[in-house]
Amino acid sequence: xxxxxxxxxxxxxxxxxxxxxxxxxxxxxxxxxxxxxxxxxxxxxxxxxxxxxxxxxxxxxxxxxxxxxxxxxxxxxxxxxxxxxxxxxxxxxxxxxxxxxxxxxxxxxxxxxxxxxxxxxxxxxxxxxxxxxxxxxxxxxxxxxxxxxxxxxxxxxxxxxxxxxxxxxxxxxxxxxxxx
Length: 180
Known about the structure:
The chain is an alpha+beta fold. It has one domain (29-178). It contains eight helices and seven strands. A seven-stranded antiparallel sheet has the order 3-2-1-6-7-5-4. It is globular and about 45 Å long. The termini are far apart.
């Protein structure tokens, strides 16, 4: 009888431990700091191409560092530093659905197939299947033969692994830059 109770307690403890280990992906503080320093108020187009992807309510919202800076300047500048604001927006679900729609240009439903591939096989698998190497060690191109929704779902996992996301207007493809 005592062994059964110990086994049950052990199973409950292990279950809570496993659940607590399965946290949502968060960008690290070094990445947040680098991202927050990419804005230049005097040259608004410089930072426009840095794509920010935020997951909320089973959707991935597409924004930019410039759009977030404008929101910060209008409504949050007296309350937070830009770095803290970025951290709260991308890591702590600071905005409700209406606010998310105001700071994003579009959103897509989370693709469970991509989420499962990432969860089971990791980022290296996404790199080998969906990316092309460039002549720079820290830079990849996302393959162009994917529909836009799939591309943004894949890029979300790169973003959460501290990659800057850019769109090359000249070549019409997405660039993924490892900032680790």
